[in-house]
């Protein structure tokens, strides 16, 4: 009997691992602390004309990063001193808070998809060079999954579907109405806010599974 | 044809309403803000020997009340100024916080059933007359339902069972591992903390339903 070529064994193992990985439906979780996306116009006022954000850390979604810069957020009943700006600048300023934060500030947050800001709560933002009073733009983000097309196809899911997601543990929870956004610009990741993470015991890097698709 | 006696109609309507009520499986929700149950010994130190708590409001569970008195809670990274004492005094001091609160204080909270305090996080408590450094006693409460025996019997549930509970809405959530405590001293009520309430959009007085029993 001829001995098996070790290089061939390695090749087989790697191919099997690749296939297993392709079938793996674990979805990593990213817990969003309160943060703000800022418009060019507002950044000019808060940090001075033409100010460029300084990258602190890359986020998991390509091109997105946390900036060294923070702002102060002021509500009728409370404030937060150092709310992190996420870059790059966007078309509209959008403040993402947990409902817990909203109660502390004294504002009534709606659960909204990113970018759907009409009729949302207003807020005062203070930077080192100036302050802005926004008539709207503060939301509690609708929980959602960033999903690459290959994963969506394997799961039979399409962009803007809603799915149910289960996380195990002592605070085992099934989250319904989880929005799926599919794009080849996305890395697989479910975003929840700190309330949702704490209610279910989820931490950054934990994984969840989709248990059912809804149209 | 004889006219029907209005008193009889009223009696029939009342009987039907009673039966419908008996079949109603909606469970009212009580959202627990951070609070503290205090021992006689600790109250003596914090508010002075023999101090009697002053009732502010009756809670829904018979005999339980919120007191006018509050304490300051101090952790390694933060503090809360006015944490409400719930009366009457208990055998052991027990501080109930949301995990969000724990992060602010800088303490690592375990999810625990009320009274199961061994090995839990310590905390410093300050009152107007003195302060206490507890080696343990701070928990995130395991979500649970206070249930009278008639309701439990109708649902086929017994004391210390765990059930799954669904709450509807834009943040529709199924909470698993919900502990049931059955006693004729209890009024039907599910207790969740502020993280759980905010993650699912629940407010005081909202209702949830049991969807499955587990042994």
TrEMBL record, chains A, B:
Enzymatic class: transferase
UniProt key word Transcription regulation: no
Pathway assigned in UniProt: Polyol metabolism; 1,2-propanediol degradation
GO MF terms, alphabetically ordered: acyltransferase activity, transferring groups other than amino-acyl groups; metal ion binding
GO terms of biological process kind: 1,2-propanediol catabolic process
Requisite cofactors: Zn(2+)
Catalytic activity: propanoyl-CoA + phosphate = propanoyl phosphate + CoA
Coiled coil: none
Alphabetical UniProt keywords: Acyltransferase, Metal-binding, Transferase, Zinc
Domain of life: Bacteria
A Pfam family this chain is assigned to: PTAC
Keyword presence, Zinc: yes
EC number: 2.3.1.222
Family according to the record: Belongs to the PduL family.
NCBIfam families found in the cross-reference section: PRK15070.1 (NF011652)
Task performed by this protein: Involved in 1,2-propanediol (1,2-PD) degradation by catalyzing the conversion of propanoyl-CoA to propanoyl-phosphate.
Protein name per UniProt: Phosphate propanoyltransferase
Organism (species): Geosporobacter subterraneus DSM 17957
């Amino acid at each position: 009997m001829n001995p098996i070529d070790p290089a061939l064994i390695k090749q087989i193992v790697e191919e099997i691992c690749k296939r297993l990985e392709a079938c793996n439906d674990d979805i990593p979780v990213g817990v969003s602390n309160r943060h703000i996306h800022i418009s060019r116009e507002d950044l000019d006022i808060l940090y001075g004309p033409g100010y460029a954000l300084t990258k602190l850390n890359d986020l998991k979604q390509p091109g997105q990063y946390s900036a060294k810069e923070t702002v102060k957020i002021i509500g009728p009943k409370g404030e937060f001193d150092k709310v992190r700006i996420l870059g790059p600048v966007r078309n509209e300023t959008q403040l993402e808070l947990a409902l817990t934060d909203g109660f502390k500030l004294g504002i009534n947050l709606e659960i909204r998809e990113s970018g759907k800001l009409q009729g949302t709560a207003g807020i005062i933002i203070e930077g080192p060079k100036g302050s802005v009073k926004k008539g709207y733009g503060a939301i509690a983000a609708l929980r959602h999954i960033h999903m690459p097309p290959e994963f969506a196809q394997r799961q039979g899911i399409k962009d803007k579907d809603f799915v149910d997601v289960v996380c195990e543990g002592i605070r085992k929870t099934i989250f319904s109405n989880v929005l799926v956004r599919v794009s080849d610009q996305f890395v697989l990741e479910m975003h929840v806010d700190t309330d949702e993470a704490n209610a279910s015991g989820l931490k950054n890097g934990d994984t969840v599974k989709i248990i059912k698709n809804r149209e």
